[in-house]
């Protein structure tokens, strides 16, 4: 019985190794300016796109609690760290949501159609299979649009692993939300194509249900809205 238990435990650990979290952005500690996620021990993904967890995968629902807010510059870059690294093939994207009047990044829960996409990577295809630029990266960078209004925002990083996405609900979402205070923006343009989480995705979206190893040469269609551009 002891041997069997040990083998099962080792198998569970081996299975969990490819999973990852996004616990901090550059120059900060884990969960200092990033809301602690429910997978902070397991590193496991979200797979139900209709659940509240698809928003920020928070350990505790609601606002950010004791999480601090990171000072960022519009037009600048923030770097997220994956721990241990992005070990699954799939699409990397990023969204932002502005805290409404009377709220801060710390109190804002991100509910409603408030999210706009600021980044989406795309794969290269060869022989009917897809390869993503984020694969095996431990750090990924995103630019904050220069045309935004100053204020408090949530910044949501999302990597959707697609290695098991040939069946419905096979896509695995690795998600975190950071709290930002953005300054230096020109306020020249308001974000468009706002979406809600949950609500932005369907489990059968072509970007979430596909065989990335044998797709017949079809171009990849990302889930969610188009990227907001200044």
Provide a descriptive summary of the structure in words.
- With 230 residues, this protein is mainly beta.
- It contains 2 helices and 10 strands, in the order αβαβββββββββ.
- The protein has helices at residues 2-16, 53-56; strands spanning 21-25, 70-73, 77-83, 90-98, 115-120, 124-126, 129-131, 139-143, 151-161, 172-183.
- The strands form 3 sheets. It has a 5-stranded mixed β-sheet. It has a 3-stranded antiparallel β-sheet with strand order 1-3-8, with no helix packed on it. It has a two-stranded antiparallel sheet with strand order 6-7.
- The longest helix has 15 residues, at 2-16.
- The radius of gyration is 18 Å and the shape is globular.
- Mean pLDDT is 91; it is low at 1-16.
How do the strands and helices of this protein lay out in sequence?
Layout: H1 2-16, E1 21-25, H2 53-56, E2 70-73, E3 77-83, E4 90-98, E5 115-120, E6 124-126, E7 129-131, E8 139-143, E9 151-161, E10 172-183
Parallel strand pairs: 2-10
Antiparallel strand pairs: 1-3, 3-8, 4-5, 4-9, 6-7, 9-10
Give a nutshell description of this structure.
It comes from Cercophora scortea. The chain is mainly beta and about 230 residues long.
């Amino acid at each position: 019985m002891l041997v069997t238990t040990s083998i099962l435990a080792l198998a569970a650990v081996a299975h969990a190794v490819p999973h990852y979290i996004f616990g901090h952005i550059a120059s900060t500690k884990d969960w200092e300016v990033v809301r602690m996620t429910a997978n902070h021990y397991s590193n496991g993904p979200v797979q139900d796109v209709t659940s509240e967890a698809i928003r920020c995968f928070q350990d505790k629902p609601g606002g950010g609690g004791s999480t601090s807010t990171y000072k960022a510059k519009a037009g600048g870059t923030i770097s997220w760290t994956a721990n241990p690294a992005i070990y699954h093939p799939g699409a990397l994207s990023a969204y932002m949501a502005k805290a409404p009047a009377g709220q801060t990044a710390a109190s804002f829960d991100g509910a409603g159609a408030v999210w706009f996409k600021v980044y989406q990577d795309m794969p290269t295809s060869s022989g009917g299979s897809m390869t993503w630029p984020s694969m095996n990266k431990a750090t990924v960078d995103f630019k904050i649009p220069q045309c935004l209004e100053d204020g408090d925002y949530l910044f949501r990083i999302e990597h959707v692993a697609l290695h098991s996405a040939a069946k419905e609900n096979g896509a695995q979402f690795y998600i975190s939300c950071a709290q930002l205070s953005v300054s230096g923006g020109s306020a020249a343009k308001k974000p468009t194509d706002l979406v809600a989480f949950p609500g932005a995705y369907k489990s059968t979206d072509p970007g979430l249900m596909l065989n990335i190893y044998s797709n017949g040469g079809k171009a990849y269609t990302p889930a969610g809205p188009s990227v907001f551009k200044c």
